[in-house]
Amino acid sequence: MTQMNAIGWFDIYVDDLDRATAFYESVLGQKLEPMGDPTGESQMMSFPADMGRYGAAGALTKSAHAGPGVGGTIVYFASQDCAVEAGRVADAGGQIVRPKFSIGEFGWVALCKDTEGNMFGLNSMT
To answer: If both were cysteines, with which of 35, 81, 117, 124 could 46 make a disulfide (CB 3.0 to 4.6 Å apart)?
Structure first.
């Protein structure tokens, strides 16, 4: 049996879906797409994903069941150079919590907050 990735999906909970979508599209330079919720209880905008490739897919989610905020879980977005995306955060309405820093053999990370107050990371090898 083939070992699966530890993360199969992620939701980033938001209060203002349009504002959060504009933020992530601006910072990551990628278009998010509307996604249907099979339960009909949430509004969702999905990040670009190829489910046949390594890594996890996910979406921005507006739901009555959960809300945004800093907690114990951080999603890290992969990038070529995390300083590039981090450089877009403030202009998109977010906040840099910790600028690009080394994590040794695992590359570099920048920690940020989005327009909803969620903490997220940017990760690159350069």
So the answer is: 35
